[in-house]
Amino acid sequence: MKRLIVGPIPDDFDPDSDIAAGPGCFLGREDVFPGWEELSFPVRAFQNDADFEAAAAMTAAFADSLAREYVPYFNEQSGTGHSWIFWRLMAMPWLVCLVQTAYDRQLLALGLVARYGDAALEVDLLDDRFPRRYLDCGAFADGTLDPWYNWWVLSRVLEKILPPAWSVRRITAPEPPAPEFVPPARIVRKGLGRFVNDRRCTWLYGCDARDRTIFGALLALRSLLRLRPKRPVRSGPAGVPAGEPARIDWVLDFDRLLRLTMPETLKNVSRLATEDIAAKPGSANLAGPDFYFVEWLKYRMACKAEGGERIICTQHGGGYGALRTMSFPHIMEYRQDAFVTWGWKEHGGYPGRFVPLPSPLLSKIANAHREKNDKLLFVATGQTAFRVRLDTMADNVAFLLDYRASQRRFFTSIRGDIRENVLYRPYFSFDAYFDDAGHIKKHFPDLQHHRGDLHAALQDCKLLALDNLGTTFYLAMAADTPTVAFWNPLFLRMYPQAEKSFEALRRAGIVAHGPDEAVLRINAIWDDVGGWWRSPEVRRARKKWLAEHARASKIWRFAWAWEILKRG
């Protein structure tokens, strides 16, 4: 009898007698079966892009409706009486990840039964004990990449729809380790100190403590000068008419999953208080990426919002304003009172109050490239087995396999003298990511690997190569680093308006369709990279793209200060 494996592969895995449900079965087990990338994984959660986009919108709307529906439960758990406004900010990062990962895994389980339901299979399912506990929303987001979480969710779906031909063996889940809560330090500020640095401006990419203090003081000053409080924006669930809650047909017991995964910090939110918080209705706050997963800071923002203050979120990475499906920023950041962008003014059909300003991060590296070596710096991105959210692409399995194959094609085809000068920069090393550094070292043991300061390296290299549209691409374009980037447009889909702004980069040779085209470009320009990069077509394309997606300015602080005085 064949085995269907939905958890990590066993030591005796044999592709002739075993069926792996997906690449996630090999996470952390690549050494057991090194050739796993050559296997077929025919079952997908989503059949096409239209289904994926519809599911992303539906699940985001469902998560939004949960923030209202579970307010009594959240208050009961925490012993508080907070409103929907408070709990939406506190719980949404967890709720979106929970709903979207559970729905994605449910579709995968349904697909497995549809394909293999008539076959006599043996399958190992985890028993009912949930194998993890999560300290906060960030820990849960990371935990959705954990094989134990995914095995448990798949088990709960499969046991509900188990085909008669399947034989089940129950596996005991491990005892979940208890997370340790460390109370945040108390903040004591009085008088002028409280006015000057009231944490109205949190950590922003590219801003130092001085910048945050100045912006926070300006926001506080603007609050004092305001004659009439500005009403904050409060919107209803995304994607559904007001008063009509979103619904999903769950196979598993979703209510139980929600209660099992609720982060410990949300069960007693009062422990997150760092000071007595006095809200000033109409006042504004600037929020960076800490707005997601730094619990004490999110608690502060939630209390302020509940008291009538406004929240202005800010862009902190690549893909914003370009990628076709980004449901998490839409439901979490765009739904606040304003969103500061790096230059773009619309993001497809996503509603939002977008404010284009020069990026502090990009401004500090603008035009900083000075070629100091003959290196081709190749910067990779993370390779995950599971989704954290329904963002970017419909077929994450095909993307993963295509991504690894495209890297191998790139380094196999590049000129020998160029390859001698390659510095391969792997992604951060996490247990939830596949070992891309080991993968490259196995296939190309001669390549040098880079582990130092990435920002310094991209300012010094002769040429930068990228196989993704991450923040590094934006940094390189701002720094004026000669760059050739490539990706498969089947997976990295953009909305039409953004596609137009990238087209000029393609015509100039900065962006390529796939590794083969990128290699041809690099082989052709390597002997005179500077001449190509300084050509009029490249100069025009870069300038136009920067203006629309990656603005930088020496006087960015003045632009931000003026906008704060207008909007604060």
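The above is record 1. Record 2 follows with the same two-line structure.
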Amino acid sequence: MRRLFVITVAALMMALPTAAAEPADGIFQLAQHIPADAAVFVALRTDDAYLDSLDTVLAQANTLMADLGTAGVNLNMRDIVANGLQIERADLDALLAWAGDMIGIAAMADGDGTPIWQGVIPHTNRQAADVFLRGQGFTDGGVYGGYAAYVREGTTQLVLLDDTMAYVAENPDHAAVIAAGDYPRLSDDPGYAATVHALPEGTYSAAAYFSPAAATAQLGLSADAQNGVIVGLTMTDANGVALIADIVQMPGSIPVTQPLSINPEFRRFVPADATAVVHGAELGGLINTAIDALEASGAVNVRANIEAVLGGAGLDLNTALNWMKGDFALFGRVDLQGLYRYAFGTVTDPAALEDLFDIGLVIEAVNPVGAADTARGLASMLRALGAARSAPVTTETVGGVELTVLRIDGLDAFALPIPVALTVGASDEVFVLGTYNAVTSILSGGPGIDIARAYQDSTALWLNQPTSVWFADSELLATAFGTFITLGPTVDPAYLDIIAVLDEDAPPIEPVLPVPAAIDGIINSLGEFARYATITTNVDDDGVQRLRATITLGALTR
């Protein structure tokens, strides 16, 4: 049974949708065979079309790795699953030939509270199933109700088989309960049904349902005071291959305050060349919640310390947070090629670094007076910092807004002396804080991220009426992928372990060092592989919380 769980983990990496259907159909229909007290229920497709679709995605990864000098690695989904199950590829093909189009796995507890697993495999060929089981070391285990039992030598594990279903049981007592068939089913549980129907899509190819109540009662885990959580995975080919993970948390005994939906028009204040954006609403409330959470977790005097620092600049924390009730955006920009060139000495002027990255915070000035007061208070803090570091502080006007600018020539970061210009100001529309280029881009009326192609494309994947949007483009994703793929073999042996598990025949991997001559090719290949990623959240009127994470891959045709 634990081997069957490995196929779940492997296949949950990616998923492909079928035709639209009711959420209770498709893989979710397997809940009819799962006990209602299951703490965890996982279901996924195993049909050829699904596995072939995963191979198309893995082919893109193979192309990327070939571009990066790791051509010996050739991943495909069936080999990954066979390695995970520790069986030969031919045996896996034989299993899939009779196992039907889906598989379900559940975790629960027996009468003594011992955790047990239950597997559910609809099938279409009983004779092929019999041949497969005997070939895997199972022998006759008697008859349980209408099921023939197969037992693996030296274990208590059984497989029950009839003309349409195969069940994997941990022991004879568990098998007897399954064969009797008189236990309550998960599909009849109202909490499960409501959670499944709260998913934003009609169908998924892999899903995992978690019942905190059952986990608390059956497995001895901590109480969550919440109802069910479900994760559904799917994939779409809109604007490239997009992998989608939807998470739904049902409301429970802890009330959920419904946050404001974001105003899409506000994104015009984020520069078009931003590589990462977090767009939300009511920043003041989020900061208050974060402070409370830190103090509840044991941090001492967090609020008092912040109030003391702000008080030195003539600011009151509550007053400053009270006007932050509208939209806000935290954004950054990075020129990865430029940073690599600087790191390897191709670019030697430290002043050039100021143009290679930016970070900024822009907040809707719902109360322009409050925003201006906060800007003046922070400006005084910049002047005090400048005096302490003997760094120049200047005042200039951009777009009719007075800005205070602190220029530090050598802020140590990542072992590099990086020049930075911290800037703050406020208009009647927005409060702005960040690096000089970020702030002046906002106030000078430059193009917003709403015109950026990747950002525009990503909106098709958002949840409806999002309360927050997180976006990262290929430049930022290339940083993450590049660090792992090009440098991973040199810094972490676990990287090699991952490749060995996925492809046991892969030759040793040599790292591709990002020397200047290879930078453009590396970044272009990474950019083609992953175009952008998003996270969106929302909370409906009933308190149902949803989170959607997506990553969109480029269409590699080489």
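The longest helix spans residues 368-389.
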